[in-house]
Amino acid sequence: MTNPETVRTIVGIIGNVISFFLFLSPLPTFFKIWREKSVQSFRPDPYIATVLNCAMWVLYGLPLVHPDSLLVVTINGTGFFIEMFYITIFFIYSDWPKRRKILVALLVEVVFMAVVILITLLGLHGTKSRSLFVGILCIVFNIMMYTSPLTIMKRVIKTKSVKFMPFYLSLTNFLNGIVWSIYALIKLDPFVLVPNSLGSLSGLVQLVLYATYYRTTKWDDDSTTQTEIELQSSSSAPQA
Questions:
Q1: DSSP single-letter state for residue 185
Q2: Please, which residues have CB within 8 angstroms of residue 141's CB and are 6 or more apart in sequence?
Q3: Using the 8-state DSSP alphabet, how is residue 91 labeled?
Q4: For the segment 72-101, what is each residue's pLDDT rounded down to a tens digit?
Q5: How far apart (Å, rounded) are the C-alpha atoms in residues 18 and 25?
Q6: Radius of gyration over alpha carbons of the chain, in Å?
């Protein structure tokens, strides 16, 4: 009989692979920034938010907080550095006012993480209380990050067009949520399960919308804005 822990590890590795490609999904945006030597109308906000999200999940997965969560640490640690690379590119090709905003936002995140780490490691004792504290924060941040997908879905319904909601991203988001939900169920982890269940539901709704409005989409219409494309790309950040 297959060891549940082995199955969990295999599922987690699959989740790492899917999540890794989701983290890479904004690359076309940054290739365009590099090619044009300008950030144009793109915004750094989603990537700055994802940096904090990844940092929180890395903290959650540490043995001192939630044991046996190495695969949560590996993918979010990788995602942290990928997002920092994106922010670095954005910083290089931004003017000073935008650079200042990026620096201030990152400073706020560093201070926030320092406070959370101090409370977690010094103020709380035992992995149960630490997991509860950090896990709730992770869920809250993940729910806040669903603003982008909701905005995109509202836009799809309003315009009856899926042009700015690429099918492969919606499908991958759905699969990512399903895989990490299975991972969380094998050895029950509600803090990983809740955001990824919501993520899989969000992905499923996007797929249903795609099937519904595919025929009414005007593919030769160039009205899709950079902001809309960026929102869909940035909303693909994994939830575990």
A1: H
A2: 49, 52, 53, 56
A3: H
A4: 999 999 999 999 999 999 999 999 999 999
A5: 11
A6: 19
Report which of 160, 171, 195 is spatially closest to residue 56, judged by C-alpha positions.
Answer: 195
Please give the single-letter amino acid code of residue 122: L
Of 141, 79, 145, the residue nearest 116 (C-alpha): 141
For the beta carbon of residue 1, count every other beta carbon within 10 angstroms.
3
- In which element (H, E) is residue 81 found? helix 70-92
Please provide the DSSP assignment of 38-61 as one string: S-TT--SHHHHHHHHHHHHHHHHH
How far apart CA 152 and CA 129 sit, in angstroms, is: 36
Closest CA to 196 of 237, 153, 154: 237
Q: For residue 206, count CB atoms less than 10 angstroms from its CB and return exposed for 0-12, middle for 13-18, buried for 19 or more.
A: buried
Q: What is the pLDDT of residues 149-200, one digit of tens each?
A: 778 888 888 888 888 788 888 899 899 999 999 999 999 999 999 999 998 9
> Measured between alpha carbons, how far is residue 80 from residues 35, 74, 175, 180, 221 in Å?
24, 10, 21, 18, 36
Q: Which amino acid type is present at position 224? A: T
Beta carbons within 8 Å of 213's beta carbon, 6+ residues apart: 156, 157, 160, 161, 162
195 contacts 178 by C-beta, under 8 angstroms = no
Question: Taking the CB of residue 120, how many other CB atoms lie within 10 A of it?
Answer: 20
Dig out the tokens for 7 from the structure.
């199955």
Report which DSSP code applies to 214: S
Percent helix, percent strand, percent coil in the chain, to nearest 5: 75, 0, 25
